[in-house]
Amino acid sequence: MNILIIEDDPSVRTLVKAVLKKQEYEVDIAETATGGQDKALQNSYSMILLDLGLPDGNGFDLCKTIRDEEVTTPVLILSAEQETNMKVKCLRVGADDYLTKPFNTEELLARIEAIDRRSNDTNNTNQVLSCGNLKVKMLEREFWVNGTKVDLTNNEYNLLVYLLKNKNDIVTQEQIAGNVWDIHFDTQTNYINVYISYLRKKIRDHSDEEYIDTVRKKGFILRCPKS
Predict the structure, then answer these.
(1) 141 with 72: CB under 8 angstroms?
(2) pTM for the model
(3) What are all long-range contacts of 104-109, with beta carbons under 8 Å and residues at least 24 apart?
(4) Are 57 and 84 contacting, i.e. CB atoms less than 8 angstroms apart?
(5) pLDDT at 89
(6) Is 177 or 14 the better-scoring residue by pLDDT?
(7) What average pLDDT is seen over the chain?
(8) Which residues pair with 30 in a beta bridge?
(9) Domain boundaries, given as residue ranges, for the chain
């Protein structure tokens, strides 16, 4: 695995690099937002570890920029910011996970492995998942609605794949949190509802059919029309 670390704190940077090298990961380093953006856009990485506080910008804007440039590399945010709103904000612009500083190395590695596992689970297959006029081509990571290709962020895509694999079944927020984000559900956040709303909007832009229903006090269900 080839990982880009975008971090200006030399102590954190040195520690994380040493931990990753011990796991035999290839590591590239950037100390600024500008340098990180250049590397992220010009090179292919398995994952990006991104600090929010950088000397010439912030990781939030950088994450948004690389997603706008259609870079789909998984991004793990590293930040001392513990506010729930910031975590949700980062997820909204395309970050795959958020780890609060200070963190222990075991949790860092566990998050990296979980993100990599989710990415492999949704990449390494020729399977096509469908529901009515919705179709996901797993190998290409493409989503189609009524014959129109619709762009999704990593988190939107992973959530949609989970719903498609469990179509016509109610899934709880706890199940979604564990299977899509590999974390315990935090009742103080609304990020799952946020991503459900994103998917609904993108589907509605190309279809009159309502696919994702909220089941009060239970969770969500992707309903497929009977053929």
Answers:
(1) yes
(2) 0.68
(3) 105/15, 105/19, 108/16, 108/19, 109/19, 109/23
(4) no
(5) 83
(6) 14
(7) 89
(8) 6
(9) 2-121, 128-222
